[in-house]
Structures are given as C-alpha cells and as structure tokens.
Amino acid sequence: MNIKNIDRTHPRGVPGHPAADQIAKRASKLVGMVVVTLFARAACTTPGQSGVGTSSIGSQSEGAGSAVALLAPGNRNQLPLDFQIAVYQGQGLLGGQEVQFSELLGQDKPIVLNFWAGLCPPCRLEMPDFEEVYGEYQDRIFLVGVDVGVFVGLGSEAEGRALLEEVGATYPAGTTPDAEVMRAYQVIGMPTTIFITPDGKITQKWTGLLTKSKMEELVKELIEESGSS
Q1: Is the pTM above the cut of 0.85?
Q2: Which of 1, 121, 183, 226 falls between 20 and 30 A from 12, CA-CA?
Q3: How many folded domains does the chain comprise?
Q4: pLDDT tens-digit readout, 70-91
Q5: What is the distance between the alpha carbons of residues 216 and 174, in angstroms, rounded to a whole number?
Q6: pLDDT tens digits, 113-141
C-alpha cells in the first residue's frame, strides 16, 4: 500500500498557510470597504434623509461640553490639532497660500470653521447661504471652509474648487493634507460647522445642513459671546 506523506506544518486555516493568508487578506479588504461605505453614508446626507450624526436640518451641540471644547478659554495653544490649510481662495485674508489654523485665532476675530466636501449635496445647498452671511458679517468674523472630501470619498481637490466656483462662493476656503482633523475635531457628519471665539472657546458645533436664518442666529451668538470673552 502506498501512503502519501501529508505536510502538517501549515494546515489550512492556520496562519502561514497560503490559503489562510489569502482569506485573511480578503477579509481585511472587505472590512475596509464596509467601513468606508458606512462613513460616506453617515458623512453626507441630503434633505429628507438622515445618517449617523446628521439630519436634514442639522443637529446642534453646546460648546460647554468637553466633547466639543477645542481650546481652554483664554489659551490659543491647546488646539487638538493645529492643522495646515492649503488655501483655495482668500489668500489675502488668511495670510498666504498655506496657513496654520492657529494663526487665524491670533487675529482676534471669531471664527466659523466649516468642514465640507465637493460631492456633498448638503454642502452645496448651504454654500449660497454661507456666502450671504459672509457678505453681511465679514468685517466681524472669519468664515473658513475646509474641504475634507478626500478623507470621506466625497470629492477631490479639483471637485472642491469646482463647487466653490459653481455656487459663486467667495469666502476663504481650502483643504488640509492632515486626515487627523477628522478625529481631532470630531467631524462625524458632513457638513460640520464649528463656532469659535477669538480666545478659543467653542460656542456651538453644528452637524448637517445650516439654513441662512440658523447660521445668522449662531453667528450673532458667537459675536456676542466673543465680546464678553
């Protein structure tokens, strides 16, 4: 009787066996695709739809909680991440082609920081309203749009620039090479808008579409809070 030798060094299902390694790689790829898909759905919702952390009219978080506090009051040097902004437009107002976010806080103006993406429908819808509010309050606040589309699969830099031109937005905007901003600033939905006083205090954080009336309300509150901070 002929008995074949069986190699039991790396049985199927044990790490190191070619088949097991192939299965592990496929599983890892599948998990990655699922995570990206879920985040993209949560990141950008159109009116009438809802996603994780978003709604058709947005959701509001108070700035007093530690979950959204970016800076200790009176201290501009405790940002969760002092990220770089590669400026698309508004170089004269922001101070150059590339600026650090902390430099904007040093100009003693309240800041409206808006995270958006080129292929995000709610972002597109709110931009004309942002432009109108910017026109009314640009002497009293900084409005800065930061395109994070590349981090959530919702547009390239070129698509971000194209959206700004298409809707006629002229307020300062750019992108950042640092994906860590998503975690550091807790951007769990798109768009996300954060209202910051000159001394770094968060007055509000809004996830989702902002209407003109609601944005004006929050800007006025920000200006009032900045005057007493």
Answers
A1: no
A2: 1
A3: 1
A4: 443 344 444 567 899 999 999 9
A5: 23
A6: 999 999 999 999 999 999 999 999 999 99
